[in-house]
Amino acid sequence: MNSKLAISNDVTLDESEISISAIRAQGAGGQNVNKLATAIHLRFDIKNSSLPEFYKQRLMALKDQRITQDGIIVIKSQQYRSQEKNRQEAIARLIELIKSVAVSRKKRIPTKVPRAVDLKRREQKQRRGKIKTGRRKIQLDE
User: Fold this and answer.
1) Under a CB-based contact definition with an 8 Å cutoff, are residues 91 and 76 in contact?
2) Exposure of 29 in the CB half-sphere (CA atoms within 13 A)
3) pLDDT, tens digit, for every residue of 26-70?
4) 15-21: long-range pairs with CB below 8 Å, 24+
5) Is 72 helix (H, G, I), strand (E, B) or coil?
6) Helix (H) or strand (E) holding 5
7) Beta strand 12-14 with 72-77: parallel, antiparallel or unpaired?
8) CA distances to 25, 33, 41, 81, 132 from 28, in Å
9) Alpha helix positions (H), 40-111
10) How far apart (Å, rounded) are the C-alpha atoms in residues 9 and 69?
11) Domain 4-102: which CATH class?
């Protein structure tokens, strides 16, 4: 069962590159949790994958706790009681993570403060200063 996962129009990922193992889920759930291995532990090696170099570099540069120092993405899915649903969710989260690095952020152009706004701010400061000056004690010259 070597199917392809679509990342973008021209980038696909072979499912054989993803290592999936079933583990027992944590937390409450009664006998289902105690007996069945419904949680999914997904591992994906970035460096040895067929992803383009652009994706690999961006993924390695990400500050994400799911990516190890060795460049392996580890995703644990245990939301559902079904192993198949957890498997689908883990794969969907992997694809979402890979897609997130493909979007390049627009460079921010710093805007200049309008002259009228700056003048208004200065006038406000002067007005406030005059109010505070008016609160002082008046000293008489002797």
Assistant:
1) no
2) 17
3) 766 666 666 677 778 788 887 777 777 777 777 777 777 777 778
4) 17/44, 17/45, 17/48, 17/49, 17/50, 18/42, 18/43, 18/44, 18/91, 18/94, 19/43, 19/44, 20/87, 20/90
5) strand
6) strand 4-6
7) unpaired
8) 9, 7, 19, 11, 63
9) 53-61, 83-102
10) 29
11) alpha beta
Give the start-to-end residue ranges of the domains of the chain. Answer: 4-102
The tokens describing 34, both together, are: 């105690």
What value, to the nearest 5°, has the Cα angle with vertex 89 and ends 87 and 94? 95
> pTM of this prediction?
0.61
Least confident of 6-10, 29-33, 52-56, 88-92: 29-33
- Strand pairing partners for 40? 22, 77
